[in-house]
Amino acid sequence: MAGIYRDEERTPLLAIVGPTATGKTEVSLRVAENLGAEIISADSMLVYRGMDIGTAKPTPEEMGRVLHHMIDVADPGEAFNVALYSRLVKEVLKGVRERGNLPLLAGGTGLYVKAVVDGYNFSEAGTDRELRARLMQECSTMGRAALHERLKKVDPCTASRLHINDVKRVIRALEVYYLTGRTLSGSASRGTNPPFNLVMYGLTMDREKLYARIEKRVDKMMAAGLVKEVRDLLARGYSPELTSMQGLGYKEIILFLKGELTLDQAVDLLKRNTRRFAKRQLTWFRKDARISWIDVGKKEVDEVAAEITSRAEGVFKAVSNDFKKD
Q1: 202 φ/ψ sector (left φ>0, alpha ψ -120 to 50, else beta)
Q2: Given 135, 196, 213, 252, which residue has the most CB atoms within 10 angstroms?
Q3: First and final C-alpha spacing in the chain
Q4: What DSSP character marks residue 66?
Q5: What are the residues whose beta carbons fall under 8 Å from the beta carbon of 107, sequence distance 6 or more?
């Protein structure tokens, strides 16, 4: 697929999305190898360095098979959001295009996927340290639930995707509203002409099978040393209140390390939270009619990858040939 671009054509973009534990990593690797593509991660947790086990980050061997982007681009203590992600991906896409390769967007963070495929532009709201400090104080006195409820009244869309414990992002959303009069969800506008010839596939499977895979995934993380990974991050000075440390796998193990849960309780909580997260992901992606769904519970990885490869080749080669005729 290398060398299919012409300057005047829209960039081909293949996306593979879906809930956690559906096998997006391995399918994307096989497809990328088949098509000569470069993988762009659309996962809000894979951006953090040193957070490998709890995020199910691709291994060095896997990343050696295909060029990956948007992985390990920030320290756990750095502020990172969808606006920054969007800006960085634009630069990545420029490089992929210059190399004549196909970009393959792969991941399960719906907002990150949408920011790329719909060409969202994010307006920059300033910061007000005094306002932020006051909101933090109100959070301490009234509680996280009260602050989240306030956000729900002014920006229900953003509140619906932010967990009550994600205090940093809840406060930022309120800050944007109070400073600009606009909601955080409304501060991003869809580009009038997204620059992609887009093909999207979603991976799904029977709920019972998915939940069984989630159970095995968590057990594998525990066996790989998730507790040590979280303990080491805390020892390096990363606060449990950081957005990164509120991610799945980290907040639950932190509760164990604080002595608030037994290890078995923390693992059970992580499995439950991951099941709920997968359900929310599926609900999000099901709203996008552009996604062609593949039931991976009934097919082998090679079969799924071959199906996506064949369809994508047909679409993108047809587009390339049309431009050659002009």
Answers
A1: beta
A2: 252
A3: 20
A4: S
A5: 17, 24, 41, 42, 43, 46, 113
Q: How many angstroms separate the CA atoms of 291 and 212, rounded?
A: 25
Determine contact, residues 256/262, Cβ cutoff 8 Å. Answer: yes
Distance CA 175, CA 127 (A): 7
Convert the pLDDT of each residue in 8-32 to its tens digit. 467 899 999 999 999 999 999 999 9
Beta strands in 30-162 (DSSP E): 37-41, 68-69, 102-107, 121-122
Tokens of 309: 């490869």
Q: Please give the domain boundaries of the chain with CATH numbers for all domains.
A: 11-120+190-325 (3.40.50.300), 129-188 (1.10.20.140)
pLDDT digits (tens, 9 = 90+) for 166-191: 888 888 888 777 766 667 766 565 55
* DSSP string of 139-181, one letter each residue: HHHH-HHHHHHHHHHH-HHHHHHS-TT-HHHHHHHHHHHHHHS
